[in-house]
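Final report, closing paragraph on structural work. Over the funding period we assembled a curated collection of sequence-structure pairs, and we close with a single example.
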Amino acid sequence: MKKILFLLAILSTLSLQARQWTTDEVKDIIRKVNTYWQANHPAEVRAFWDEAAYHTGNMEAYKLLKDKGMLDYSIRWAEHNHWKGATESDAKKWKYRQYGEGQDYVLFGDWQICFQTYIDLYNLDETDKKSEQKVARAKEVMGYEADSKAHDYWWWADALYMVMPVMTKMYRLTGDTKYLDKLYENLCFSDSIMLDNATGLYFRDGKYVYPKHKTANGKKDFWARGDGWVLAGLAKVLQDMPKDYCHQPFFAEKFVNLAGAVRGLQQPQGHWTRSMMDPEHAPGFETSGTAFFCYGLLWGINNGYLPKKMYAQTVERAWHYLSEVALQTRGKVGYVQPIGERAIPGQTVDANSQANFGVGAFLLATCEYCRYLQTEKLSLTFQNESDRQRQEVAEFDLQRVCEQLGISSEEPVVIENLAGQEVDYQKTYDGKLLLFVSVHPRGKASFTISKGKPSTPKAFVRGKVYPIRKDDLTWENDRSAYRIYGPALQKTGERSFGIDVWVKNTPELVVEERYTKDREGNLMEDSLRKAGQKVAFAEIDRSTSFHLDHGNGMDAYGVGPSLGCGAPALMNDGQLVFPYCYKTCRILDNGPLRFTAELTYGTTSDGVTEHRLISLDKGSHFNRMTVWYDGIGKPTALAAGVVLHGDEGLALGKNYLRYADPTDRPDLHQSQVFVATLFPNDVSKTKVLKGELNHAVGIVKNYTGAPYTYYFGSAWSLYDVGSEVQWQNVIDEFMANLRQPLKYDIIK
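Its predicted structure, as stored:
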């Protein structure tokens, strides 16, 4: 039975995703629904919440389609109501603390939602003489509320859709932030009586707070339309609220949290049941809450607040329900729960259940779905003109992308492959967009780029300065890890100059764990040493030291007073002049695809200062190193290379050198650390330098301090490079790829 239900669930999901809608088809639905409603319902009705909620949807339809008939319908409604809500003129008689439909309930939110449409109509008036009558009552009433000391206006969830967007529209209308401040103040009160902090959802009002009120099955009773009002209201607020407003992050966080809670309660058929956490309490389809949720989630995706990857299936399911179930043949929108305030067991909600506010919600969702489909996309293509399979981090110009999308470089984008799957990317400090691509020989890989919020990417590259380990700068990717020693180590007098290699046999990031484990071991060892517990001390060291392999690699590479793996050094009379430890460090990029750091070293007695720019990409065995110097008075020689711990395993090429290091304890580790330094910009020669520790180096003669770029890297025989022959192949392929980079093209 379980297998049958599982298969039915899969088939249901596939059926929901089967149809591909076009924007023209969605626009036809908008026209069909709105034509049906307006043909069967006069515009000349009161300005109370249910009618006004319809007009918020009608205005969205007009903004999208520019259909003058739709605009005229809302104008006739507004004029019929003299551009007012409740009409009582004496402010001393204005009420709001309980439900009321009388003309004295001026401050009651159900009489204020009409101001959303009045302000929109005012803003759409392109004549030289806008009629202030359209917004006079809105300014009078909302100005009074904004200036008042009371903050308990919004005591039911519906009000957060009725009035919150009015406040932001009033700010846009007047430029006065008092409306935003009052919005924040009022919402804080609402949160204090209706917000369930455990879920991020809202109870309809104080009467329904759990455990005072429960569903038929003893669960929390969150009314779908009530939370739909809230999510849609927050979307409208964020649309008009300036991003630099002091409380904007509060509203954005609330919107994202509520969206996440809503997403998790959707039914397989695409709708939300009236009692969201207890479908059995009032089972069956319901359109108004579902439409408001669909609108809010789509708006979040379209405006960069919600990641498409996470929410696409949710909105597609909701759209399937709205377009295939809720929408009836002639344009009627069915399955709308009648006016009320809770999920009522046994209440009839069927295909003939329609309401003005339900149509308004449907129009909001449909318009936003149309925008979702018509999101502008750029076509990005990478071409591999070589005869080799390529998989690497490719880079392209961020500014070019932003200009073609009409966005700033700070705004996020979404990159997808041909199957519509989101692909992780990275923006760099120097204005590049990075993408990890795999391209067939002589092949092309294609992607699309659009505005939107990306999902949180998995990090394959990361680096950090570790004060707990004497200011080590340590970074890693999915191949290897490296560290450079910092100023705290230099103060101890320990002679460690070069670049260290930490081997690993996993693509996961492990450096942080190694430092933590080693640090905890050191603390325990200190106590055991003082207590004379030699056996226990040795056991702790064996189980925590990062110089031993605990399953994912280790630091088994000897550096000391040497270049280590790939460090640069100036030369004096044929000898290396080591720069010691870095003085300052700036991390410029930190994953998920590239790490970049800029290092400055202390000025020598000759007035020379060294600078390094190091970067490491996902999937690469090699770091890119650019080194330059200030203060070189006359041409000298620049060297870079690796320390040698024996005579075997060394190969010197014209523009590279490689070495199979036997590790710092060959008898124990029985593996090799393959290291190399590559010089694609050529060097004068490669050679072995004898000294306190021997080195294999590439030497650049007549060097005057200008930026010089080369590469250094490593691999481990117990991971992905098992022999010197394989290491040579890796080097040859990397150098060939540098000579023939991938080409890219961006087409709008």
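Residues 485 and 585 are 11 Å apart (CA to CA). The chain has 20 helices and 26 strands. We thank the funder for supporting this effort.
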